[in-house]
Amino acid sequence: MAAADTASADVPVLIAGAGPAGLVLGLLLDRFGVPSLTVERRASPGALPRSRAVNTRTMEVFRWLGVAGEVRDAALGREDAGLPFAFARTLASLHEPDALVARSVVTGRRAGHSPVATVLCPQDVVEEILRRRVPAGRVRHGVRLAGLEQDGTGVTARLVDANGLVEQVRCRYVVGCDGAHSAVRRALGLRLRPGGPVAENRHVLFEAGLGPLLGDRAAGIVFLHAGGVRGYLQPTARPDRWTFNRILDPGAPGLPDEAVVRAVTGRDDVPVTVLAARDWTSRSEAADRMSAGRGFLAGDAAHLVTPFSGSGLNLGVQDAHNLAWKLAAVLRGRAGPGLLESYDAERRPVAERHVREDRAGTAAALATGSWDRWRVELPRRRVKDGLVLGVHYESGALVPDGTPRPAPPDARTEYVPTARPGHRAPHLPLGPAAARGSLLDLFTTELTLLAGPDGGPWATAAARLSARLGVPVHAYVLGRDPSWIAPSWTALYGITSGGAVLVRPDGHVAWRDPHARPREEAAPVLDRAVRTVLCRDG
């Protein structure tokens, strides 16, 4: 029998779900000085590793949070170091001529587009690294969201713990990071739009000494197809533990988990111990909206993609990155509530694009069961610098400047650096040679103005605007000392030596003026831009 409701508690932001999206959102809000409470229905983290690809953009967010080094050190291998894909009938046949080993995607750092690189780090390891950074008492496990009600000033959430104790929590905003079966999504009246191929799967975690079978063909992911069993093998953070995800094709033989593992290894003499297993359904879907009133969705609550896209964890982290600074700006009185409407306007098109890509390639390859299509389609679909670093917003918290967006031959795979409003501000090395950092390091918890070497009037305007509006704008005049940054930075950013760009805390360009302006012109131009971006009236 449930206990009586306890007295209400108050918190600015309530987060449901302590996966990567929820943990990152809480940590980002903490950096912005906004307290939050995260509730997680699971009493403890799950035993089965899930997503592993941590892409370049997510590593940039982790770098900003100070955890990129830990994630890199715990990773199985950097993708740009060439950790390969492999395709074979069984592990025992991996060294035969018809097996295929394909070098993995080169992204970000090697191409000079980022100070970090994509890594392969199991999601359970990433979550543990993030949890260690969460202040005490900010995450409560074994607590589920049982309902919520919105009104004109906030949200009242009903929480229930494992003992049936009910608690009312009052918050200004609620964010659902609670996965594919999101309670927040249901409570907000939102839904995932169905469509695209669906595959049933069985995910198995097991112990076995597989190192000798792999030999010099150790791979980040091995696709196997033997005896009616189709799926993929992946290493975990422990050298003796592996996961095999079986795709349950219609008509495939029903086999015990241990028999499945033996079938794809191709050996009966390797001891196998199954530790855990679960059935799950892979699909590609996006929510009809990512916000409703004072409620928001992020991560799998807002969109689902198949594991082969390598996007699931990353989309959720980047949702949080987009939302955190907006919540903080509104809660701190620096922006109007209209700023929060830009979250759906910006992030939903990104999610829908990833879902379309997933349906067009990866999911379709899995649904057909065609071995040849697997071998061609899956590695090709992993090369997507354009999707990762070229992510951009066409409307939202930005001031368009009328310039066309870059149009490379393949916008999915090719990234063209640009400081066009709505795009990620490009990386460039910054600082003296002995302590070289990144231009991205200048983007902190406030708006940042970058002016060319003759852009002093813009910096002066930023200082005066900060004092007048109570909105800090950190201003930098760059290019006067070529030992700190290449003088060509202005050309990359699309401005003259007297121009300027305004960058948001999430690293996306909010506004750009390529021209030098006298002080009396610069001030009102920048004032209008900041007011527009932050939805400030008057």
UniProtKB/TrEMBL annotation:
Report the domain of life of the source organism. Answer: Bacteria
Q: Where is the FAD-binding domain?
A: 10-357
* A Pfam family matched in the record: Rng_hyd_C
Q: Which GO terms describe its molecular function?
A: FAD binding; oxidoreductase activity, acting on paired donors, with incorporation or reduction of molecular oxygen, NAD(P)H as one donor, and incorporation of one atom of oxygen
Q: Supply the source organism's classification.
A: Bacteria, Bacillati, Actinomycetota, Actinomycetes, Kitasatosporales
| Ranges in a coiled coil | none
Enumerate the cofactors the protein uses: FAD
Sorted keywords for this record are: FAD, Flavoprotein
Q: What is the name listed in the Swiss-Prot or TrEMBL entry for this protein?
A: FAD-binding domain-containing protein
